[in-house]
Write a structure and sequence with these properties.
By secondary structure, this protein is mostly helical. It is built from six helices and no strands. The protein has helices at about 10-20, 25-30, 30-70, 75-85, 90-100, 105-119.
Length: about 120
């Protein structure tokens, strides 16, 4: 009788890697050795990508705020300075969302920042 060396462990391990490599191109999708390396690199990149996304979103909010502030006749940096002088504590995500969804409230905040700068 032949001896079972690895059972289903090897098959399951390979299937798990090849399943994660779905969508890759060429040999990296079908060949286990190439797929294993590609999946490992993809996992490393996805880890750092999750960290990078936070900074990307912040820069998007700042870009939106800058555009909305310039429509009101003030630059982004002067707007943020005016907010701090006025004692208004609100994060950039909420401000960006407000500029898009509630322009009237955003205009009121910009006016408060402008008056704090003028005082």
């Amino acid at each position: 009788m032949s001896r079972a060396v690895d059972g289903t462990k090897r098959v399951n391990r390979r299937k798990k890697i090849l399943k994660r490599a779905k969508g890759f191109q060429g040999r990296r999708r079908t060949n286990y050795r190439a797929a294993k390396e590609a999946v490992n690199h993809a996992l490393v990149d996805s880890y750092s990508g999750r960290k990078d996304r936070k900074g990307d979103m912040r820069s998007l909010w700042i870009t939106r705020l800058n555009a909305a502030c310039r429509d009101q006749g003030i630059s982004y940096s002067r707007f943020i300075n005016g907010l701090s002088k006025a004692g208004i504590i609100i994060n950039r995500k909420a401000l960006s969302n407000m500029a898009i969804e509630d322009p009237v409230a955003f205009t009121a905040i910009v006016d408060a920042a402008k008056s704090a700068l003028g005082a």
